[in-house]
Amino acid sequence: MISPKYSYNLYVEIFTKRLNKLIKDSKTTKYKVAKELGCSKQSVCNWCNGTSEPTITYLRKLAVLFNESADYLLGLSDDL
């Protein structure tokens, strides 16, 4: 069995930090991200504060929107 590099909580923390940073650095809003992705602002807020995680479909959309890899968003890679 392959052991995870980090605990689940650390992955959530990494994801939330990176998503918040990408939103801030792109000078956009959570509302605009939600509109672009086709989801609610509340969903984006929940992802940003770690109370829920995006589905694979939304993870892919986030990666495309911010031109980042899903691995980067999930903390599996540090490459920007």
Briefly say what this structure is.
This protein is mainly alpha-helical. The protein is 64% helix and 0% strand.
What labels would you give this structure?
80 residues, mainly alpha, 434 Repressor (Amino-terminal Domain), 64% helix, globular
Outline the structure in words.
The chain has 80 residues and is mainly α. It has a single domain (8-74), classed as Orthogonal Bundle (434 Repressor (Amino-terminal Domain)). The protein is built from 5 helices and no strands. The protein has helices at residues 8-25, 30-37, 41-49, 56-66, 70-74. Helix 2 (30-37) packs across helix 3 (41-49). It is globular, with a radius of gyration of 12 Å. The protein starts with 7 loop residues before the first helix and ends in a 6-residue tail after the last helix. The model has no long low-confidence stretch (mean pLDDT 92).
Please outline the helices and strands.
Layout: H1 8-25, H2 30-37, H3 41-49, H4 56-66, H5 70-74
Helix pairs in contact: 2-3
CATH C-level? Mainly Alpha
Mean pLDDT: 92
Q: Report the total helices.
A: 5
Count of DSSP E strands?
Answer: 0
Total domains: 1
Low-confidence stretches: none
The CATH homologous superfamily is called: lambda repressor-like DNA-binding domains
The N- and C-terminal alpha carbons lie at a distance of: 29 Å
The biggest sheet amounts to: none
Please state the overall shape, judged from the principal axes of the Cα atoms: globular
Give helix and strand order, one letter per element, not per position. HHHHH
In terms of DSSP E residues, the strand content is: under 5%
The CATH topology corresponds to: 434 Repressor (Amino-terminal Domain)
Q: Using only CA atoms, what is the Rg? A: 12 Å
What structural class should be given to the helix and strand makeup? Answer: mainly alpha
The helix content, as a percent range, equals 55-70%
**CATH second-level architecture:** Orthogonal Bundle
